[in-house]
């Protein structure tokens, strides 16, 4: 769910400008999953640009407040959501924790780093949603700790049907500052891609596992 189309277009423009998102329909990337993809996204790049970083933080705060109200805690998903979540927590004056991809193998064997208490409400911050699998593991860890997860907020989502189904099944609300449809719209407007590229980009989103095979 996109909260603000105008803001979503601006964020898409930023992500393309700073090359946090790269579009190469004619020279695809290969993801860790083995999928061929015309897009590569690394939103950690936004942290190196104060103007972009500040805008994203402010839009996160607006979207979270509007959709979820003010939670007791902000949580970031390791690793991409840690810095983004800390910035949001600072802006809201709230405690911050982060969730590992898996529990530590030594020491306290924590999966949640920081202090959360049973009954606290939490909003989870992610930088990117693909299938939603790793993101929802963080949600489950918080729920097992007795927290009430109000939902998740991400910078960007590919809007895969698989992810939407996974969030629905997990009964976790997801909001995103920008998404794939808005990105390719902005990319066309700014002549980053052509109409021909657009067809290929849309085909990939419909069937990413088979595209380019």
Radius of gyration: 17 Å
The gross shape turns out to be globular
The percentage of residues in β strands lies in: 15-25%
Major sheet: order of its strands?
7-6-5-8-9-10
Continuous helix count = 7
* Mean of all residue-level pLDDT scores: 94
Number of strands: 10
Distance between the termini: 30 Å
- Helix and strand string, N-terminal first? HEEEEHEHEEEHEHEHH
Runs in which pLDDT lies below 50 for 5 or more consecutive residues are: none
Structural class: alpha/beta
Largest sheet: 6 strands, mixed
Percent helix, as a range, is 40-55%
If you had to describe this structure to a student in words, what would you say it looks like?
With 213 residues, this protein is of the alpha/beta class. It contains seven helices and ten strands. The strands form three sheets. The chain has a six-stranded mixed β-sheet with strand order 7-6-5-8-9-10, with helices on both faces. It has a two-stranded antiparallel sheet with strand order 1-4. Strand 9 (148-157), helix 5 and strand 10 (174-179) form a beta-alpha-beta unit. Helix 1 (5-17) packs antiparallel against helix 2. It is globular and about 50 Å long.
How are the secondary structure elements laid out?
Elements: H1 5-17, E1 21-23, E2 29-30, E3 36-37, E4 39-41, H2 50-68, E5 73-77, H3 80-92, E6 96-99, E7 112-113, E8 121-129, H4 133-144, E9 148-157, H5 161-169, E10 174-179, H6 180-189, H7 195-206
Parallel strand pairs: 5-6, 5-8, 8-9, 9-10
Antiparallel strand pairs: 1-4, 2-3, 6-7
Helix pairs in contact: 1-2, 1-6, 2-3, 6-7
């Amino acid at each position: 769910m996109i909260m603000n189309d105008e803001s979503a277009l601006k964020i898409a423009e930023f992500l393309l400008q700073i090359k946090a998102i790269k579009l190469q329909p004619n020279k695809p990337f290969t993801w860790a999953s083995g999928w061929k993809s015309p897009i590569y996204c690394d939103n950690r790049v936004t942290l190196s640009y104060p103007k972009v970083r500040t805008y994203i933080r402010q839009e996160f705060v607006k979207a979270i407040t509007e959709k979820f109200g003010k939670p007791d805690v902000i949580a970031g998903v390791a690793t991409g959501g840690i810095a983004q979540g800390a910035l949001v927590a600072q802006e809201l004056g709230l405690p911050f924790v982060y969730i590992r991809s898996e529990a530590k193998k030594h020491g306290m064997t924590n999966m949640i780093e920081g202090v959360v208490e049973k009954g606290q409400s939490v909003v989870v911050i992610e930088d990117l949603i693909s299938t939603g699998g790793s993101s929802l593991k963080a949600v489950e860890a918080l729920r097992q700790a007795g927290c009430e997860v109000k939902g998740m907020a991400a910078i960007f989502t590919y809007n895969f049907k698989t992810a939407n189904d996974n969030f629905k099944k997990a009964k976790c609300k997801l909001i995103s500052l920008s998404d794939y449809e808005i990105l390719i719209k902005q990319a066309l407007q700014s002549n980053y891609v052509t109409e021909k590229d657009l067809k290929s980009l849309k085909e990939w989103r419909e069937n990413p596992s088979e595209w380019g095979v």
